[in-house]
Amino acid sequence: MLKYYVIANKSIKIVPKNDVNYVYPLKDFCVGYIDEYQIDEIKEEAYLLINRLLNTEDITKLQKILDNLPVNIVGIFFEDLGVYELIRNLNIKSILYASHACCNYKTINTYLTKVDSVVISPDITKEEVKEILNKTTKPLIIYGLGHLPLMYSRRTLNTNYAKHFNYPKEKVLELEEEVTKMPFFTVENQYGTVIYDKDIYNASILKNEKNIEGVILNSFNMAMEVDELINTFLNNLKGKEKFLNQKTVYKLKEL
Fold first, then answer.
1. In this predicted model, what pLDDT tens digit does every residue of 209-223 receive, in sequence order?
2. Residues 86, 90, 92, CA angle at the centre, nearest 5°?
3. What whole-number distance in Å separates Cα of residue 10 and Cα of residue 34?
4. Main-chain dihedrals φ then ψ at residue 212, nearest 5 degrees
5. 8 A C-beta contact, residue 131 and residue 105
6. Which of 184, 194, 201, 226 is the most exposed place for a label (fewest CB within 10 A)?
């Protein structure tokens, strides 16, 4: 049975379910989310999400939090490898969630010598995902449903944009690329900005593949409760497969 890692936000009800694990963006250590949580706000068994790139001061602050981690925190999704050094001796599950870095089985197998699992990048095709699943040494996690985070900048891009064009500053700003007319939205906090695809990504096509340990359902900016998120993923009711059917262009072909 698939496990679901549902990224929590304050618009959904936290309902205990055997196959659902809630993942809470940790306050001051995340970008790209409106709702973030202090440790003492999390009451049930849960995971933390830490997706910021951290400096020495941040690592010191995080160390103090992890030194007093309550027993209901059973794992951490993280991007910065500095976090691994803090949690490697803790009795919790370590999951590397480097949004755009885990794109081949050799890289992932290297990380799997250190961590419990890895989230496969959603930037690659279904054929590339299947190859990874067939050639890695531990079960992996896929990004199953939600808006795709396309870019992360440590700059406050929404603030800068608002200043330049004399607009009111917004935490969530909708944009359209001028040439392709592709819609985006950006989410900013004091630590940076994440640009999301406005379309919803659905990787239901992968749900029956072997070696999948779990599926991320990113509830951010989606008005769905947990059961609806799961049903939408399983039955491919909403969303697009995006890069799963479209190879990323790394360089133009020679003429």
1. 999 999 999 999 998
2. 110
3. 9
4. -95, 120
5. yes
6. 184
Q: What is the mean pLDDT of the chain?
A: 94
Contact (Cβ atoms closer than 8 angstroms) between residue 52 and residue 192: yes
- Candidates 135, 140, 109, 255; CA nearest to 203 is 140
The amino acid present at 202, given as its one-letter code, is: N
Does the pTM surpass 0.90? The reply is yes
CA distance 186 to 193: 7
pLDDT digits (tens, 9 = 90+) for 2-32: 899 999 999 999 998 999 999 999 999 999 9
**H or E stretch covering 110:** helix 105-112
- For tokens 């698939």, name the residue: 2
Single-letter code of the amino acid located at 74: V
> Which of 17, 235, 20, 52 minimizes the C-alpha distance to 153?
52
Q: Coil, strand, or helix at residue 41?
A: helix
Half-sphere exposure (Cβ direction) of 87: Cα atoms closer than 13 Å: 28
DSSP-assigned letters across all residues of 83-115: HHHHHTTSSSEEEE--TTT--SHHHHHHHHTTS
Integer Cα distance of 96 and 82 in angstroms: 11
Statement: residue 172 has pLDDT above 80: yes
Give strand ranges (E) for 154-230.
172-176, 183-189, 192-202, 212-218
Element of type H or E holding 152: strand 140-153
In which residue are the tokens 């196959």 written? 19
